[in-house]
Design a protein that fits this description.
The structure holds two protein chains of two kinds. By secondary structure, chain A is mostly helical. Chain B is mainly alpha-helical. Chain B folds into two domains: about 40 residues; about 100 residues, Up-down Bundle (Four Helix Bundle (Hemerythrin (Met), subunit A)). Classes of the chains: A mainly alpha, B mainly alpha. At the A-B interface, helix 6 and helix 7 of A face helix 1, helix 2, helix 3, helix 4 and helix 5 of B.
């Protein structure tokens, strides 16, 4: 039945896949108003004889010339993209900046803490002197006989 | 280049914030305020974690000691003036030496009394704070001098 209903015109030169599809569809469009024809029309639409196209594609071989600079250009593009935004820049230099940040922030925290300790020590020295003067008003440094 | 500078600026900003945080976490604002106001009792209270009762007891101890201290200092000063007068009048060597020995004895008595006083004060604190208080105060007592009569602000009286 398939062979009977298959009204493709095959072998009319010049044969092309496009012509085959067009001819099949022309007959199919007539038959699609009938129940059996509608099934056939849909069948043909899905399998619209791509055989020659498939064969053409199967035989298609691409043999581009080797580009010795290809890898270099790819890395160049990646490098350009790495510096295109701040986030990309940080991501590209994450290790260096992480290390630098840890060192700098650690030093800053230590410096702040050391400054406070030094100030506290100076404050304590000053208040102890005041306290002892309160305790003994006769205190006078540097006048020992 | 701009990202490098931006990152440097960001790290610098973070470092400044971290330094400030470290400073704030370590500094002692109560002590600083006490120093600024010259409030020694407030210093004792904050630095040695005194309760109200402890602070009150220490206040009383200081008040009771003030009379003793004043008497010691008055005697030392009087003895020193006598020694100086003796030297100025060309007194005998033996008399000057005796006056110096007496001054030294009075100094020892005064310093011993102060040391005993601060030990009593330390005993009113917790053991750890008391140790810290003595470590701060005792070494300085050894450097006391009683030759002049300054007022409470360390200005020498004429």
């Amino acid at each position: 039945m398939g062979a009977l209903l298959h009204l493709r015109v095959v072998g009319i030169p010049p044969y092309t896949a496009a012509a085959e599809i067009t001819q099949t569809f022309f007959v199919g469009r007539i038959l699609r108003d009938f129940p059996v024809g509608r099934v056939y029309y849909q069948y043909c639409s899905m399998n619209a004889s791509h055989d020659s196209l498939s064969e053409g594609l199967r035989g298609w071989r691409v043999t581009p010339p080797a580009d010795p600079d290809f890898r270099h250009r790819v890395w160049q593009r990646i490098g350009k993209r790495a510096g295109s935004t701040w986030t990309a820049y940080l991501r590209a230099h994450a290790t260096a900046w992480s290390l630098a940040s840890i060192i700098v922030l650690g030093a800053a925290a230590y410096s702040g803490s050391a400054l406070a300790r030094s100030q506290t020590q100076a404050d304590r020295e000053a208040i102890v002197a005041t306290y002892l003067v309160d305790l003994d008003p006769q205190i006078q440094a540097g006048l020992k006989p | 280049m701009k990202y490098l500078l931006a990152t440097v600026a960001m790290v610098a900003l973070l470092a400044a914030g971290t330094a400030y945080f470290g400073y704030r976490m370590t500094c002692n604002p109560a002590l600083h305020a006490a120093v600024a106001n010259g409030d020694t009792m407030e210093w004792l209270r904050t630095d040695f974690h005194l309760t109200k009762a402890q602070l009150s007891d220490i206040r009383q101890l200081h008040a009771s000691y003030a009379g003793t201290c004043g008497e010691h200092c008055r005697m030392i000063q009087q003895e020193t003036l006598s020694r100086n007068a003796l030297v100025a009048a060309g007194g005998s060597r033996a008399a000057i030496d005796a006056a110096n020995v007496e001054i030294q004895r009075m100094r020892k008595v005064c310093e011993g009394a102060i040391e005993a006083h601060v030990r009593r004060v330390a005993a009113l604190m917790s053991s750890e704070d008391g140790r810290r208080y003595l470590a701060l105060v005792l070494p300085r007592i050894a450097n006391f001098d009683h030759m002049a009569a300054p007022d409470l602000r360390l200005n020498k009286s004429s």
